[in-house]
Each structure stands twice: as C-alpha cells, then as structure tokens.
Design a protein that fits this description.
This protein has 251 residues and is an alpha/beta fold. The chain has a single domain, classed as 2-enoyl-CoA Hydratase, Chain A, domain 1 (Alpha-Beta Complex). The chain has seven helices and nine strands.
Length: 251
C-alpha cells in the first residue's frame, strides 16, 4: 500500500472505528432498556436554540424546524415549507426543491425530474430533512441525471437534506447558507427488540457512508452526525464544508 493510499484510507478507518464504538454503546443501552424497561438517557446540557448564531466550537443547536429557523437573512422568505418535497421551476433549467423529505418522495420527485421540460440542470435546495432512505435514493437520481445543487444566502439544509446537496455534480453553497447534520432517528427501543434496533443502526450507517463515498464526500463528516442527538443539529462552518469536500477550495 502506498503512503498516499494509506492516508486516504486512515480517515475512513477512524470513522468505522467510531461507528463501531457508538453502535456497541447504543446496543448495550438498548439491551439494558429491553431488560429493565428503561429509556435511553439524554447526554450533555441542552443546546442553544437555532436562532442563536454559531461560532467555531459552538455549533450544536436545538432542532425544532417547526419552531425555529437559523439566524440568517435569506434572499427570500419561503414562508412555511411544505411537509413533502416540492419541485418548481424558477428560471430556465434552474429549479427549486424545497420542503420536508417524506416517504415516497424519491420516486415522486424522480418522475418529475425525468419528465420536466426543460430538464433540470441545477436544483436550489432548502429542507429541514426527513426520510434518509428517500434522500439517498433521490440523491442518486440527481447524480445520474448530471444535476448541480445550490444553496442561496440565508437558506438551510439539515438532517437528511445534505445527502441531496452532496449529490450535485457541482455544489454551490453560499457562505451564509446553513448546512447541518445529526444522528438518524431509528425509533425508540420500546418498539424494537435491541438486536433489531442495532441492526437497523448498522445498516443505515453503512448505507450512508457508502453513499457519501460515492458522492466524493469525506466520511469523516459523520463524526459530527454521530455525536449530535436527533433533537439537535450540528451546523457545519464554511471551512468544514470545504474540509469534507462539499465545496471546492476556491469556493
């Protein structure tokens, strides 16, 4: 193995080790919960609200998209975003893709993209996230169709939305846009036996890491997602978006 190859693989190896440790810890808590009827504990202090600005080292915010939006000055006021993704043409081959990502959206939006006239060349994104499976499936459509992704000043892309953002053949992210990640929600252990819950976590994380690698994104971004609970969001700074290859160095 060359030195370059070793350097390229080491970050992925570190992420995989972190994922394994995380899964073992969650598995132990889930087994304990199944045996004793306990709920998973909440770790650490409450994060500030999303309306408070972020700064290096202070990037976790409470995640309640129905209540708060980031402290930004968007170029336009989208009003209340729909619960499902909506595709609308804005100018020529540029389209907006906005709203929550609901189950079934991947197939529905894929049909709209492939039937659109003119065909989309750029998608402007804004979404609080939602279904990870649909985000990954739709992201692969975006990539296979050769579509670029874009984020405008003051707009946001959280939770599963960054997977759509990652799919762009090019990614244009305004420095004042807000991109955030957190743990995926797999349900509470009161609904799933521990073994099945851990299996879901493992499968979901493997799918996400494979997807990020396909899209050219550094899987080390998962360290922030895995350490941020589902009711919080970790807002990536512009330098982190560059570090994890969401943006190019000259953006």
């Amino acid at each position: 193995m060359t030195e370059t190859t070793a350097k390229h693989r080491n970050p992925i190896a570190r992420v995989l080790m972190g994922v394994l440790v995380f899964q073992l810890g969650i598995g132990a808590l889930l087994v304990l919960g199944d045996m004793q009827g306990l709920r998973l504990p909440s770790f650490g202090p409450d994060a500030p609200r999303l309306t408070e600005p972020v700064r290096p080292g202070d990037q976790r915010r409470t995640f309640r998209p129905d209540r708060d939006r980031p402290v930004t000055q968007p170029a336009r006021n989208p009003g209340e975003l729909p619960n499902r993704l909506v595709l609308t043409q804005t100018d020529g081959t540029t389209y907006r893709l906005e709203g929550g990502i609901s189950a079934g959206d991947a197939d529905r939006i894929t049909d709209m993209i492939t039937q659109a006239d003119p065909r989309p060349e750029t998608l402007i994104l804004q979404s609080p996230g939602g279904s990870v499976a649909d985000a990954l499936a739709l992201g692969r459509t975006i990539r296979s169709e050769g579509i670029a992704t874009q984020m405008l000043r003051g707009e946001f892309c959280y939770s599963a939305c960054p997977y759509l953002l990652a799919a762009g053949t090019t990614r244009d992210i305004d420095a004042d846009a807000s991109v955030g990640v957190h743990q995926h929600y797999f349900g509470e252990n009161t609904f799933l036996p521990a073994a099945f819950a851990v299996e879901d976590i493992q499968r979901g994380q493997a799918e996400v890491m494979t997807y990020l690698n396909e899209m050219g994104i550094d899987p080390l971004v998962m360290q922030h997602a895995l350490s941020t609970p589902p009711d919080q969001i970790y807002v990536l700074l512009p330098e982190e978006l560059e570090r994890y290859r969401f943006t190019a160095p000259d953006n």
